[in-house]
Each structure stands twice: as C-alpha cells, then as structure tokens.
Amino acid sequence: MKLAIEPLALLLIAIALVFVVGADFTFHRRVAFRDDFDGGAVSSLWAKTLKDGTLNQSNGVITLEAGKRGSMSLVSEIVFTGSRFSVLYRFMPVVLPRPDAGISGAVSAVAGLTLGVAYIERDWFFSYWEANTRAWTSIGIRGRQGNWYLVRWHVSPNQITITVQDDRTGVELGSCAVGFRTKQTTRVTLATYSWSEERISATWDYVEISLDPTDYRWIFLVVASAIFALDIILAVSWIGSRRACDNRDSVARGRGNIVNAMCDDVQKGIS
Amino acid sequence: MGLSQQECGKRKHRLVGENISESQVEKVFFLTECRQSLLLFLFCFTIFFLGAGGHLYLNDEVTNYLMVESFLRNQSDITPELPYARTFGVNMTRLPGMFHQGGFYSWYGLLEPLAAIPLYLLATAFGYEPWILIEILFYPIVTAMTCVLVSCCGRRLGCSDRVSVSLALIYGFASFAWPYSKFFNDGPLATLMVLASASYAIDEKQSYARGFLSGLFAALALLTKREMMFLVPAFLIYHRLRKHKSSYSLIYLAPILIGGAVYGYYNYVRFGSFLQFGLGHEQTLDAFRLPFLGMLGLLVSPGVGLIFYFPLVVLEPILFPYFYRKRSREAVFFALIFITTLCFYGSYRNWHGMTYWGPRYLLVSLPFLVLSLGEGLMKFYDQVLWKSMIVGLAVAGWFANLLGVLIYFQVGFAMLWYQFGPRAFWDISLWRFEYSPIPVHLMLLAGLSSPYQLEFQYGQTSPGRLDLFWLSQVGLIPVLAVLVGALITLPFILSDEDRMKNLRAKIR
Lengths: 271, 508
Hints:
The structure holds two protein chains of two kinds.
Chain A (H helix, E strand, L loop, with lengths): L4 H17 L4 E9 L4 H10 L6 E4 L2 E4 L11 E6 L3 E13 L9 E13 L4 E7 L7 E5 L5 E9 L2 E8 L5 E8 L1 E3 L2 E11 L4 E11 L5 H30 L10 H12 L3
Antiparallel strand pairs in A: 1-14, 2-3, 4-5, 4-12, 5-6, 6-7, 8-9, 9-10, 10-11, 13-14
Helix pairs in contact in A: 1-3
Chain B lengths: L4 H13 L4 H29 L8 H14 L10 H6 L8 E4 L2 E4 L4 H16 L3 H27 L4 H13 L3 H4 L6 H15 L6 H17 L7 H10 L4 H26 L20 H9 L5 H4 L6 H11 L1 H19 L19 H6 L2 H6 L4 H23 L2 H23 L5 H10 L22 H6 L1 H19 L3 H10 L1
Antiparallel strand pairs in B: 1-2
Helix pairs in contact in B: 2-6, 2-23, 3-5, 5-6, 6-7, 6-9, 9-10, 10-12, 11-16, 13-16, 15-16, 19-21, 20-21
C-alpha cells in the first residue's frame, strides 16, 4: 500500500489548525433576549430574520437585510468603547427557530446583527438581537433594577454617538461619542436557540471559534503545522526507505538509479 | 570499519557503471547534508520559538528596536517621537548611547536593526506589533542558523554527522546560547557572523572567493558589534599557519576595511568623528583595567561563570589536546578567538555584563569552545563512562539554562536587588552561589521564593509567571504538542548513516 504524504500532511495541518485555534473554543450560555413583552411583537421580530438580503451602513444608519437562508456568512465585529459605555456590534450567522414552524420547527441559518450595550456605572448589561431593521436608532432596555432606559445612537462612518436616558424621568444619564475602533475578526458561530412562547424568552447557546488574522496564534499555527507536516513526511519516507531497501531486488520500479545504488550499498552492507 | 580503498573503488565504479556520475553521487551526499541541516534548523528553531518571551527585556533591546524604527524613518538618532517610544513613554536618558547636539544616538551596531527591518515590515503588513514579532522570530531564526553552522563546521573539522549535530545541539541547548535566543541583543547575530567567517576560513578547499566571503562575514560581524575587530588578528595568524599567500589575507581584509569605513562614516554622521562609537567614557582606556578579576569571574563566578552556564567546558582541558593533535592549526585559531574575547572583556570594568543571563560577552567564542570538543567526543564515543560524563554535563547545562528560558532573568535580579540593596547586590549575585541566578531561578520555579512584582516599562512585561509567550497565547497542550512534534524529528537529525558516511569518506 502506497502511503500518500500530502493528504496525511494536510490532515495533520487541519488537526493542528483546530487544535491551536480551538484553544479558544468557548461554550457560552447567554440570555440573548429576555423580557416581559407579549409574544406577538417578539415573534414578528424573529420573523423578519428569514428574509434574504444584505447589510448596509450609510447616512448614519445601520440597515440590515438578512443574509441568504442557510448560508454562513463571515462576521465583522466592531467594538466601541467609551468611558461609560461599551457597545458591541456583531454581524454573524445565527441559527434560529423558524417562527412559522413553532418551537420544534426547522432551523435556518441567516445573517443577523447583535448589539450589546453595557452601561458601566449602573451595572447592567443588555444584549439585544435585531435584524433587517431600517432606520433603527433607538431601543428601550430594562436594567436589572427594573428601570427602563432609552438608548439612542447615531452611527456615522467613523463615529458613533450614544445617549442613554432614564425612560421614566426623561433625565439624560449620559452620552458618549466614540470613534470606530475596528478589529477585523472572522468569527464562526455555531448557535442554537431555544424559544419559549409562554415566557417570551430566548436562550442562546453557542460555540465560538475566533479567527483573528492579526492574532499571534496564526504564527504558532504555521510553525506547528510545519513541524507536524515534517513529522509525517519523515515517518512516511522512513517507512518507504525501509521497504525499498528491504527489497532484495534493489532495482525496484519507481526508484532512480542513485537510490537503487544506495539501497544496494545498504542492503549488501558496507563494513 | 570503513570500506577498503579497493572495495570503495569498485562500488564507485559500479555506481558510475550504472550511469551514475561521481558528481551525481556527490550531489546525493550534499542533499543528505542539506536535508539534515534543514531538519536541524527546524528542530532548533521550533524549540527556540517555543521559548520566546514576546517582549523586550532591557534598555539595550529597547534601543536596538528603536534603531529599527529610526532607520525606517531615515534617521540616525533616536527620538521620543518614534512609535514605540511614544507608546511606552521611553525615557531617553536611560538608554545606552550618547546625546550629541540635541540628538540621542545608540552605541549599538548597524547590522542588527537593519536585519530586523524585513520582520518589521512583515509585521506592519499583517497588522502585528513589530516589536513582538521581532522578539518571537528574529533570534530564534538567528540562533537556529548558528546551530546549523556549528554542525557544518563540525563536519568540516572531520567529525561524523552524529557528532556534528550533537555539537550543534550542545551549543543550542546545553549552553547559555539558548536564553540568548530570546533577547533582541546583538550577541547572537555577531556570533553567527564570526562563525560564518570562520567556517570559510577553515574550509579545506581554499580559494580567494572563500577568503573574500570570510572577510565579508567578518565585516558584517564588525557592523554588528564593533569589538569583533579584535578577532581579526586571530584570523590573520590562522592564515599564516595555513601558509596562505599575503594576497589571500589582503582579500580577506578588504571587506573588513570597507565595513570599517561604513561604520566610521556612520559615526561621522552622528558625532562628527569616525572613531566615536557613542560609548563616551566606555570606549576610553579608563574603562579598562587588568583582566585578572574579570577573566576569573567570566570563568568561575557563580553569577556569570562559564563553568555554570556551559558545564561541558570543564572537559576542555582533557578533550582539547585531542583536537590539537588532530587539527593543530584550527585548535590554535579557536584558542586565540577564545583568549582574545576573554582577555578583552575580562579587562572591561563591566566584565560581567550584568544584568543578563550568564557570561554574555563570551557568547561570540562559545561555538569555538563547542567545536573544539568534537574530536574528543569522537574519541570517547564508545566509552560508556566518558559518554555518561559528557551527557551528564550536557544535561546539567541544559537544565541550568532552561531556568533562564523559563523565568524572566530580571525578576530574579530584582528580588536580590530589593533584598540586598543596589550596592551589595552586584557582588552577592556574582560571587555567592546561593544568590546567583541559577539557584534563584530554581527557587522561583519551585515556588520557594516569590518574585517582586516589578513595574517594568517599555513593553518589557513578562507574559506570566513563566516567561513563555506562547504558553500565554495558546496554552500548555498546544505548546507540549509542538514540543513533542519537534522531538520526533530528533532521531532523524541524529541518525548517522554509517554506510553513507564511510562511502562518502572513501569516495572523497
């Protein structure tokens, strides 16, 4: 049986890839959406995700049309950081329950947008999922203390301005304008949603594999792959040379004259 | 036992008879050596790479890195506006160099920052921090190349493949060359250049081209570290011992003179003087004294003594005579390089080169010490007692220097600094074994001592308790996996094709 070096090397490199990059394998269980709304409104939001479309950001407004059904699109992550807020945009493929098929319905992969807002001083965190929304510039969120807040934002090509307002009193709690600090990240997200119509809540369990081109681990990956591929090549050539030189008929097919001659020397023994 | 001349002739004839020319056979041998060298390089590089710290260590390295940024901006001075200096708020007055007419100029050589420029450009192209990429790649590559060159020189000196590779591994992992694969300091590059120069000098096949290349690498060594000019007489004496013509020595000297002129012009641009290297007082005779204390310290002091950081050196008095008997001219040549280095740095007031790891000033002569062991290793190769002793000392050297790889050496020094104060610290860490770096690092590693939490500056922070960049980046299992992957190649690197070797020896 002839051992093929290349597939083995590629296999090992692939293993190395998963091995190294998978060092960042994380399993998250996060409440993606939890609220006391009536089910209808929420369901309608989910329903919008099933359209095909594209993502655009222009004129200070983020617009999103969900990606092709069943596709896995690349993810761009943009992190905004201010003194009091941190905002996370994440465009990612997600796996959602199809609302028309109920809780146990088929799932479909679509492109989506995640917006996470952390308001540092008041110790609340909100993670909101939205898709296919045009001219979407504000959101009402509820903190852990039960208060409602209104978060408005204005997005320009290189800046985002965020304002947080107490919804009950109308008092502006603060605002910040931060420049875009873009970190190009390729992120593959495998996610499952569970959905409960009665309690109007969604839990989002997902496994992330981060692929950041500027991550130093890529350098490690290159070295690791090289050394593993080398191991395979050495092992295969060692097995091959032993087989070749064990052959009493040294003039084997597929071997050059030089190798044949060397094998002769090895075979007959030079002592 | 090798082939008899007659048998070899028959086999060679038979090879040629099978339409294989002698040059083809030579080519096969050459490819075998190339393959072994490539494997050796990958093995050494991988181990050095795994040990990388991923940060700059001392102000010397910060200066060298700032020179990279300075050259890329067509500057000769180091300014606070350089990206790294601006990011980390580098204090210019603490850097090694000299202020002159409002500018600050490093006292380090040209070649190291110039050689690091490709990595800098690569890092910026891919969005990495250049100083981190340079730290994790530059000296692992250079030191691995030095290991390969040691094995090549071993072959040229008549050692078997296995002994040649063993010498390379001894240099790389049983000596203080290993920790220096982590630092962006000029020593390892100067070592590579001097060894490359010597490798052409000791080549059996002599030609003017080889003489020129030997001189070229000597010039590059000079551009890396100006003190390398003091090794030129050793080369010239060696030329005389080999009875080379004067014209050969002149061809050797020509590139060195050009290199010297380039360095002189660089000095002139900066300081208005060809001979001002930016050392100030350090390049005056006042900075030197009688070398006895320095020589003694470089050889036997617990803090930086060669016997602690390269324990195999204790066998030199026994093994060197074998080398001298077999190759007396090379033995004299290597001894001259070592003695010159030892005397020069031993007479320097800062002979210990602290605070670094081991006798850093002797790094340049270390490959020659290692190579001079080769003949003795061949001699005692089959004697179990000797073999055990050699392996034991090599393992001791490996372990001692592993401590320097695992623990950031500044942490150990800082602990003593705070314990004994800045005055007593030097003598205590140099001359009292229990406070010298090896036991201090051992205690730190074992958790018996607690390191001081220093506030390092300039991106000099260790990535964790262990000074291993990749451990902090990818975790233990991937690091161990790659280590195992590298170790798997070791039997192939050390394989000694006796039959091939004998055939080659006879054919040649």
